[in-house]
Amino acid sequence: MDLPSDDEIRALHERLAPDRAAFDLVWTHCLIVGEIAARLLTDEDRDLVRAGALLHDVGVHRLAPGEAYLRHGLLGHELLRALDLPEPLARICSHHTGVGITRDDVLEQRLPLPPDDYVAETAEEALVMYADKFHSKTTPPRFNTATSYAASLTRFGPDKAPRFAAMVDLYGEPDLDDLARRYGHRIR
User: Is residue 1 pLDDT above 90, yes or no?
Assistant: First the structure.
């Protein structure tokens, strides 16, 4: 599979970001997610996980003013496919939100997405999705413990916390202390 280099991915983020602050926020988050995912790798495709982590939020740069943030994954998928990047890489964008969005979620909650399943199906999609849960682009950005992230899931349906708990059982909880010190983001 022909994947872009880290420098090519960074250049794409720089080109798409509306300003330097947006670039810094999203790129730093993607780097952190990549570091977390690398620590959790077992049998997954290392290069696909690396590129997927660095690109998983590229769609944030494509959000129109007032557009639902939830759409950033789909926008990233569409962007990567328009650039002729591999489908497995593009799917990481559209299949990393929360702990997965089902077609029933879209319909029952009237989410602003085409009715479909946006649930991780490959080991690489699942790993990037999971690593993403441990860092947030809030103001200010922060790291999340498994406990704090699990507590935030209750509003999205009763099946979400157990799905996340299964991921914690599978991958374990990453040690975030050194990343928190290096990036200056607190752990919540």
Answer: no
Residue ranges of domains in the chain: 6-187
Q: Which two tokens stand for residue 91?
A: 């799917």
Q: What type of residue is 181?
A: R
Q: What is the pTM of this model?
A: 0.97
Mean pLDDT value of segment 109-113: 96
Which CATH class, in words, describes the domain spanning 6-187?
mainly alpha
pLDDT at 46: 98
The token duo for 98 is 């929360």
